[in-house]
Amino acid sequence: MTDPHSQDRPPSPRVIAREAAGSAPEPPPPAAAALTHLDSAGRARMVDVSAKDVTARSATATGMVRLAPPAVAALRGGTLPKGDALAVARIAAIQGAKRTPDLIPLCHPIALHAVDVSVEVRDDGVLIEATARTADRTGVEMEALTAVAAGALALIDMVKAVDPAAVITDVMLREKSGGRSGHWSRP
Questions:
Q1: 20 to 30 A Cα–Cα from 108, which one of 27, 47, 96, 164?
Q2: For residue 49, what is the DSSP state?
Q3: CA 35 to each of CA 7, 32, 42, 43: distance values in angstroms, whole numbers, following the listed order
Q4: Cβ of 166: how many Cβ atoms within 10 Å?
Q5: Residue 50, CA distances (Å) to 46, 136, 141, 142 in order
Q6: Which residues are catalytic?
Q7: How far apart are CA 168 and CA 165, in angstroms?
């Protein structure tokens, strides 16, 4: 099937060079059929999950915002110029989980049933943990990861006047459960 809009786009420099050389169009990558988010022509697509069973699913992700000692002290003392950075980070994390399919192109919109967020001030920064839960046809790993990333970005926005060198590190999936693959936990 051809792309109905392909006539509207000028050919890429690569296509022009290939046509000038008289060579045939490139076939799709050989592994394209095996990749779930590519169609037979190698184009990105959203996977059809309609045949999957609805099951309870959960995912937990964590991430760290590394901060200088003055920023940690301001968080602990409640003296940041912008206000309660930890509350803002929690709300941003929840909002990030809810907006995941708007931010991650091939992520399915799912009904989130819960998003729990904790923020823990440590001597070297703030640990953010988010757990997302649903009963749906696909997992909530991306929602948990997006929650952590959004919370970390909001925290940096709140502390940047005190610590412009703050760094987000170690954003990762810790655990997931539900669906055909069952339970997985980071070793």
A1: 27
A2: -
A3: 27, 5, 9, 10
A4: 20
A5: 12, 10, 18, 19
A6: 157
A7: 10
The tokens for 171 are 């954003």
pLDDT tens, position by position, 89-107: 999 999 999 999 999 988 9
Burial class (CB in 10 A: 0-12, 13-18, 19+), 108: middle
Crossing angle between the packed helical segments 141-159 and 69-77, to the nearest 10 degrees: 90
Q: Look at residue 112 and give its three-state secondary structure.
A: strand
| C-beta atoms surrounding 175 within 10 Å | 16
Whether the model clears a pTM of 0.85, i.e. scores above it, the answer is no
Burial of 66 (0-12, 13-18, 19+ CB in 10 A): middle
Helices 141-159 and 85-98 cross at an angle (nearest 10°) of: 150
Class of domain 55-179: alpha beta
State the 10-residue block means of pLDDT for the chain, 187 residues long. Answer: 45 51 52 67 83 92 98 97 97 98 93 97 98 94 98 98 98 95 94
User: What are the residue ranges spanned by the domains of the chain?
Assistant: 10-45, 55-179
Is residue 172 helix, strand or coil?
strand
Q: Residue 48 corresponds to which tokens in the numbers above?
A: 């059809």
